[in-house]
TrEMBL record:
This is Glycolipid transfer protein domain-containing protein. GO terms for molecular function: ceramide 1-phosphate binding; ceramide 1-phosphate transfer activity. The keyword Transport applies. The lineage of its organism: Eukaryota, Fungi, Dikarya, Basidiomycota, Agaricomycotina. Keywords: Transport. One of its GO terms (cellular component) is cytosol. It comes from Agaricus bisporus var. burnettii. Coiled coil: none annotated. Gene3D superfamilies: Glycolipid transfer protein. SUPFAM superfamilies: Glycolipid transfer protein, GLTP (SSF110004). The keyword Ribosomal protein does not apply. Residues 20-158 form the Glycolipid transfer protein domain.
C-alpha cells in the first residue's frame, strides 16, 4: 500500500482532451473526499456529505444517459432544457466544494508556517462563504477551528497506509503540488464553462 495521495486517482491523470472525462473526474473527486478522513475531524463531515451527495447526482445522470455524458461538458449541455437539471446543479456545487479544498491546501503550501485552520478559513471566505446562509456559515466556522495541526496532517499524508516506510516531505510536496495544480485547472475550466454557457442560472 502507498501513502494516501498515491493510493487514489489523481486529478493529474484525468483525461481532459476534448472535455473532462466524467468517470475519471468522479473517481478523483471521491479520492478528495477521503482526504477529509486523513484530516481526521468529525467537524468536516458536513463537507464530506455535501461532496458525496453531489458526486452521486452527477453519477446518476451519467448512468441514465452515458452516451450523452462522457465528458462533464456534454453532461451539462445535454441536461439543459430539462425541468430540474439535478446534475448541472450538483456539479456546480461539487466544483465549489473542490475549489474550497484545493485553495485551502494551496494556501497551506504557499505559507509553510501557517496552521491549517488559517489556510482553510481563508479559503472558505474566498469560495463557499458567499453561497451559504447563517446556519451553514456557523457549521463551517466550527469545522475550521477543528482542523488538525499542520504537522500531524502532513505526517499522516506521508505515511504508508500499511505501516511501511513513509515518503519524504519533498516527495509529498511534489505529489501534492501536482495533484493540486491539476485539480485547480479542471475546476477553473469548468467554472468558466458554467459562466460562459450561463449554466448556473436559476440555482
Amino acid at each position: 500500500m502507498a501513502p494516501y495521495l498515491r493510493s487514489i486517482k489523481s486529478f493529474a491523470d484525468v483525461n481532459t482532451e476534448g472535455g473532462v472525462d466524467t468517470l475519471q473526474f468522479l473517481e478523483a473527486s471521491k479520492g478528495l473526499v477521503g482526504l477529509f478522513d486523513v484530516l481526521g475531524s468529525a467537524a468536516f463531515t458536513v463537507v464530506q456529505s455535501d461532496l458525496t451527495g453531489n458526486i452521486a447526482k452527477v453519477k446518476a445522470r451519467y448512468d441514465a444517459a452515458p452516451e450523452k455524458s462522457r465528458t462533464l461538458e456534454s453532461l451539462v449541455q445535454n441536461e439543459q432544457g430539462e425541468k430540474k437539471r439535478t446534475a448541472t446543479e450538483g456539479l456546480m456545487w461539487l466544483l465549489r466544494g473542490l475549489s474550497f479544498t484545493c485553495k485551502a491546501l494551496q494556501n497551506a503550501q504557499a505559507n509553510k508556517s501557517e496552521e491549517l485552520s488559517v489556510a482553510f478559513t481563508k479559503s472558505y471566505e474566498g469560495t463557499l462563504k458567499k453561497h451559504h446562509n447563517f446556519v451553514v456559515k456557523g457549521i463551517f466556522a466550527v469545522a475550521m477551528k477543528a482542523c488538525p495541526y499542520r504537522a500531524d496532517f502532513f505526517t499522516k499524508l506521508r505515511a504508508d497506509q500499511e505501516g511501511g516506510e513513509p515518503v519524504t516531505q519533498e516527495e509529498l510536496e511534489t505529489d501534492l503540488n501536482k495533484w493540486l495544480a491539476a485539480l485547480s485547472a479542471i475546476v477553473q475550466h469548468m467554472q468558466d464553462f458554467y459562466v460562459e454557457g450561463n449554466y448556473d442560472k436559476g440555482f
